[in-house]
């Protein structure tokens, strides 16, 4: 029998949990340059005259030089990386971005573009004294075509704000992620963010209709079309999707918003073993078909980390694995019948051992909260080594037990959760504090294992600062060479997000 829903989970809103996690540790992380032994490249040093120049482009309050004001821009979300920037600029228009970059290019001043600073691979914060170019004030919605669903906005719009805006017009954003209350659409595009709706709506290479971007030399590239079909020449917008601010800076985005589903339901189930998780996925695909919009899994340690660290109660009993199934469709009766047939079948077969199903928005939010909070819950253990890999489904979970065995008591927890429908698992290893010995046990071991499985060492978070020297585990040497040629072409002085994405050797 399915448990009746009990409101065990308090009314925690996503943003509240997010901030709780963000403030988990007040200890300053070690400087990235020291921790990872990086040498500063030969960029210019910022002079007082440069700051004065920027004050002629931007108003004074948008040129930050005070150490305390700048500190949050220097530290990443998981508190792993810390840069040494002494200057943050907050443009309000593409024109201002263009002026800033042209000047920086001439003076060989390095720049780190920053959105909501929720990136998980150290790409969003400087390594040395790169100027932080923050998009937080470029947050205007420009237009929405309610019929086609084409939304055009500036890159600093917060994802959740956009979703709230389009929902009032019966549309939704095609992507959703745990960081939605802070991440920017420009950051999402620059990382080709995946998230919870990818199974249904595909990735951003499909839903981004156009971008406006600024090259390192200040040239504005206008690819801001809102057409679904446009085969005129090279598809240049794709250069900026997922290039993590190394080829250009995204200033505006045109994105396709699908119709808001009329009927949404969410189930949270206990499952006996991982083999049954895969069998349940196969069954959900065939039984639920077009209404299946998310299929997520979390192992026992993932959920217990949110229960123990964030005090979010688990609405069902203790199980080795948990599965979250979301359906979204246009006909409540039809969708409910389909879901009910699926549940009856799989409870009878034993694939679902226990669970809860709800269509009430507040209760669905609470379940999603539990799932989305896993990403940050481990930070409360001290330090988290995070790996975001994709592997063929048959081997989806195989790395977790392997790492548990390898690390033994050196880890507080080793757990896996993620987007089963996309073959994307997040593996987290928590320890009381950053430990070089544990790091050496994990890297490059985990990347070697992923390569053996023909997987990708970064499914959705990107390469950033943490993985350029491991990119060869997932990219052929010829592809890496072309990446370097593109970087040279678009940013010959290498001022855009140096030390990131493109490997040095
Ligand atoms: C709790 C939590 C859950 C998450 N869940 C997911 C998930 O499900 N799926 C997923 O894919 N990611 C997830 N992430 C990672 C992160 O939220 C995404 O990578 C997100 O897209 C980053 O957006 P941002 O605005 O915070 O970018 P930032 O972190 O500020 O920057 C990320 C990268 O993009 C570059 N950048 C930012 N803005 C621009 C711009 N306008 N132009 C050029 N370059 C730019 C930066 O230089 C950096 O390299 C999660 C993170 C957290 C903290």
UniProtKB/TrEMBL annotation:
It comes from the Eukaryota. Its EC number is 1.1.99.39. This is D-2-hydroxyglutarate dehydrogenase, mitochondrial. It catalyses: (R)-malate + A = oxaloacetate + AH2. InterPro entries: FAD-bd_oxidored_4_C (IPR004113), FAD-bd_PCMH (IPR016166), FAD-bd_PCMH-like_sf (IPR036318), FAD-bd_PCMH_sub1 (IPR016167), FAD-bd_PCMH_sub2 (IPR016169), FAD-linked_Oxase-like_C (IPR016164), FAD-oxidored/transferase_4 (IPR051264), Oxid_FAD_bind_N (IPR006094). The keyword Oxidoreductase applies. Belongs to the FAD-binding oxidoreductase/transferase type 4 family. Keywords: FAD, Flavoprotein, Oxidoreductase, Peroxisome. Its cofactor is FAD. Residues 81-260 form the FAD-binding PCMH-type domain. The keyword Flavoprotein applies. PANTHER family: D-2-HYDROXYGLUTARATE DEHYDROGENASE, MITOCHONDRIAL (PTHR43716:SF1). Pfam families: FAD-oxidase_C (PF02913), FAD_binding_4 (PF01565). Its main location: other. GO terms for molecular function: (R)-2-hydroxyglutarate dehydrogenase activity; FAD binding. SUPFAM superfamilies: FAD-binding/transporter-associated domain-like, FAD-linked oxidases, C-terminal domain. It comes from Papilio machaon. Catalyzes the oxidation of D-2-hydroxyglutarate (D-2-HG) to alpha-ketoglutarate. Also catalyzes the oxidation of other D-2-hydroxyacids, such as D-malate (D-MAL) and D-lactate (D-LAC). Exhibits high activities towards D-2-HG and D-MAL but a very weak activity towards D-LAC. GO terms for cellular component: mitochondrion; peroxisome. It is found in: Peroxisome. Homodimer.
């Amino acid at each position: 029998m399915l448990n009746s829903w009990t409101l065990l989970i308090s009314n925690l809103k996503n943003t509240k949990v997010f901030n709780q996690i963000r403030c988990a540790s007040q200890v300053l992380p070690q400087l990235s340059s020291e921790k990872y032994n990086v040498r500063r490249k030969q960029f210019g040093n910022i002079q007082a005259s440069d700051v004065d120049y920027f004050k002629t482009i931007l108003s004074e309050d948008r040129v930050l030089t005070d150490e305390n004001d700048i500190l949050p821009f220097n530290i990443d979300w998981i508190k792993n990386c810390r840069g040494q920037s002494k200057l943050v600029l907050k443009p309000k228009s593409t024109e201002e971005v263009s002026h800033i970059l042209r000047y920086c290019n001439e003076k060989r001043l390095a720049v780190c573009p920053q959105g909501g600073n929720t990136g998980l691979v150290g790409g969003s914060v400087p390594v040395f004294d790169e100027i932080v170019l923050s998009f937080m004030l470029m947050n205007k919605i420009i237009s929405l075509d309610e019929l086609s669903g084409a939304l055009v906005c500036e890159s600093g719009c917060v994802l959740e704000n956009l979703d709230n805006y389009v929902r009032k017009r019966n549309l939704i954003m095609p992507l959703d992620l745990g960081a939605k209350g802070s991440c920017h659409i420009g950051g999402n595009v620059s990382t080709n963010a995946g998230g919870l709706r990818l199974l249904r709506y595909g990735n951003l290479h499909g839903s981004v209709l156009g971008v406006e971007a600024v090259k390192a030399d200040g040239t504005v590239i206008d690819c801001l079309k809102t057409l679904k079909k446009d085969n005129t020449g090279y598809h240049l917008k794709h250069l900026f999707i997922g290039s993590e601010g190394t080829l250009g800076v995204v200033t505006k985005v045109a994105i396709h918003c699908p119709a808001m589903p009329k009927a949404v339901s969410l189930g949270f189930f206990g499952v006996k073993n991982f083999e049954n998780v895969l069998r349940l996925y196969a069954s959900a695909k065939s039984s639920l078909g077009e209404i299946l919009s998310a299929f997520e899994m979390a192992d026992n340690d993932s959920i217990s980390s949110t229960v123990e660290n964030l005090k979010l109660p688990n609405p069902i009993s203790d199980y080795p694995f948990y599965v979250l199934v979301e359906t979204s469709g246009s006909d409540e009766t039809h969708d409910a019948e389909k879901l009910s047939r699926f549940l009856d079948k799989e409870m009878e077969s034993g694939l679902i051992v226990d669970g809860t199903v709800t269509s009430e928005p507040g209760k669905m939010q609470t379940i999603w909260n539990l799932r989305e909070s896993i990403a940050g819950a481990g930070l409360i253990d001290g330090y988290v080594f995070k790996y975001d890999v994709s592997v063929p489904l048959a081997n989806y979970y195989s790395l977790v037990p392997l790492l548990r065995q390898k690390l033994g008591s050196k880890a507080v927890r080793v757990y896996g959760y993620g987007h089963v429908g996309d073959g994307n698992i997040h593996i987290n290893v928590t320890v009381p504090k950053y430990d070089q010995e544990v790091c050496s046990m994990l890297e490059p071991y985990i990347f070697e294992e992923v390569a053996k499985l023909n997987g990708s060492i970064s499914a959705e978070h990107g390469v950033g600062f943490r993985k350029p020297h491991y990119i060869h585990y997932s990219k052929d040497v010829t592809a890496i060479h072309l990446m370097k040629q593109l970087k040279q072409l678009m940013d010959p002085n290498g001022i855009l997000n140096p030390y990131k994405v493109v490997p040095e050797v």
